[in-house]
Amino acid sequence: MITEEKKNLPWVEKYRPSKLDDLISHDDIIRTINKFIQEDQLPHLLFYGPPGTGKTSTILACAKQLFPKAQFSSMVLELNASDGRGIGIVRGQILNFASTRTIFKSGFKLIILDEADAMTNDAQNALRRIIERFTENVRFCLICTYLSKIIPALQSRCTRFRFGPLDPTQILPRLDHVIQEENVKCTEDGKKALMQLSQGDMRKVLNVLQSTATAFPEVNEETVYICVGHPLKSDIRKILQWLLHNDFKSTYDLIQEMKVAKGLALQDILSEIHLLVHRISLPPDVLINLLMKMSDIEYRLTSGTSESLQLSALVAAFQLARADLKVPDIDDDIDEND
Predict the structure, then answer these.
(1) Is 13 part of a structural domain of the chain?
(2) Tens-digit pLDDT profile for residues 303-325
(3) What are the AAA+ ATPase domain coordinates in residue numbering (predicted)?
(4) What are phi and psi of 184, to 5 degrees?
């Protein structure tokens, strides 16, 4: 049940789980942490994995289970990268909180360092001694996206849990719950589009759902793609048809016109075309050369080169692939429902 104080929150925060039992995935991790709590043996924790997979939600639900609401602010310190976590913060705020014992309250405090991979090496080195000295009084939970950016000395002091991207079967029940609670008119293809675009990121699913529901009367595949500025599947099929069958100038002009009219990014077009190219019957050597050229174009795009120049390169790559080859009609090779 949504309380009055949560009514105007973004849906990501409004529907953030408040108990470990409410979390929708990573059953083995939840079961292990529940066991730690029940036996009062919670170690220092290190959560890592892609964004929107439940890392912060898990530790906040854990903290709410450990501490009553009245004690929460005095027993839990949550710091984000935006709070500034250089060596000064570690030696000041974190050290003071960790070294101070709470009178009349048993148990340990909890320090949550979200986006810990943004901490400097000096700050991480200063933190490792604090973790050792005050283990009786405090437990640390480090949360990061890139494990490699956490120094080995900190990794060895924590029990590590990897949060992988969520499966669509795990996302769907929660998505249906939010749709029902918010009375959103959403079609099945709209749900499918949300899950495909999110790539296992629950936060992205809810953010795009809220944006689309606010901007359009119905959440369907078309409105979802329009809302995020992602090319529609039908548009990608048109572009691929042009690349495979039209001459250089008309192909370039048609794609450029569509990009401007719909506000599409060449990076998104390239990623979607790449998926379809794999499903066309092409000789191995032609496919290999085409994919290598597309990967070079993507690399140059990420380096900040001109989109119009790289669009020319994309059209040219397909023209070269067609030079000594009759390309089959993609309608015969690609299932419309894919």
Answers:
(1) no
(2) 989 999 999 999 999 999 888 67
(3) 41-169
(4) -90, 135
